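Hello K.,

You asked for the raw outputs rather than the summary table, so here they are, unedited. I folded two proteins back to back in the same session to keep the settings identical. This is the first:
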Amino acid sequence: MTAGEKAKAKTEQAQGAAKEAVGKALGNERMAAEGKAEKSLGDAREAKEKTKDVFKN
């Protein structure tokens, strides 16, 4: 996994988790859903990079 892609995935995961938590705390379902989607995007990016690493080695 390239360092840049790994960092981007971790950033998306952290931002999504934070946005989801804030949305839930405020009772804002839309914000919570957006945060969950961002977190999922980061998870998918990380999985893609890990898969690429497996086939690269």
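The second followed immediately with the same parameters:
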Amino acid sequence: MAHRLSQGADHPGAADAFAEARTTLHHASVYARAAARDADHDVAGFPTALPVEPVQAAATDATSAVITRLAEDSERLSRAAYGALHDRADQRLSGSDLQQISRWNAMSRLLAGRTLTHVAAEMPDGSARDRFTGAAAVLREPSKAWRDAAAAWVHIADTVDPREHPRLPPPGYAQVRQGKAVRMPSPDPHPAAVISRTSAVRLGQLLFGAQWTPQQPPGAARPAADIVADAGGAGALAASAYRLCATGWQMAAAAPWVIRRAEAGLVTNSVDHQPPNLDQGQRFYPVHPRQVEALTNAYSAVMGAEQKSAGALLAAARSAGTPVPRAMLDAAAHRAIAQEQKWVTATPAQAPQRVLPRAHVPTDLVLGRRPGLRQ
């Protein structure tokens, strides 16, 4: 009801107040469910996570709205991670989705670090500047960890969603003539993959301008004073980057379950894991358990890096005089997630995707193109 009222309010102050009330009510419902899970079965029937609907970035977006929209993206990604962890979403994350999320998260951490470095260069000497510089340096660790997680998928493809697959030679004339050359299916990407890309685009817009896209070279950064003004202060900028890392921790915690559910449909062309007596001409074969272990270990490394970065960013925000009460909620959620890891059951085989309405998605997500920005 609060959400509907916020949509119909004419006064912008009333709309913001209703939106804040909705967020507070949502958080309260989560705590109420946890406290009365065994007492009220009717309440337990309601979902704790709202549907995930991506809102893409556009060149017409105002840079002053980037921080607010980044917070909304983080909320959506948290819900997507919850759905992936508990297997409650209408559309499951695939191996291609996870690979794309890893690439875009690596880029967003890199952009966040560059933004903090750029802002810190204009800050007066003191503890706040040192903490901003230190947080920017620490952000390189989750960027590298996400990039390594994406690299672990290089020789692996998900047959349910092969948008991301090892590079293949073009089919020969005999294959085409015999009708054996077919196009790879291209399902719609998961909303979490779209949102991860959107978060990276928003950070690039804040740093380089509203016209920036991942296909463009970085170029010159905007004046640091303009970035701080659009963010609502240096502390708010650090707090927004903290939300990225806190949400990234949740997605990395859900990734091993996504991999286990999709394991039956994963194939590889790795030379190091070829099975004996392989048929001549067979390009792919079932993924090896060691490859699955390497994937899960890669996302375990992401969790540690994101947690370290979140702590550094919290310290930076507080040094700038910006409290982050959300951190208490995130800490409680992370403790609950860590405890639930012991009893969450993974589905051994991936069920068919449900038929969902098709939405417009960026071309680079559909075709599995790599982000252009490099570290």
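The longest strand covers residues 156-158.

Happy to rerun anything if the numbers look odd on your end.

Regards,
P.
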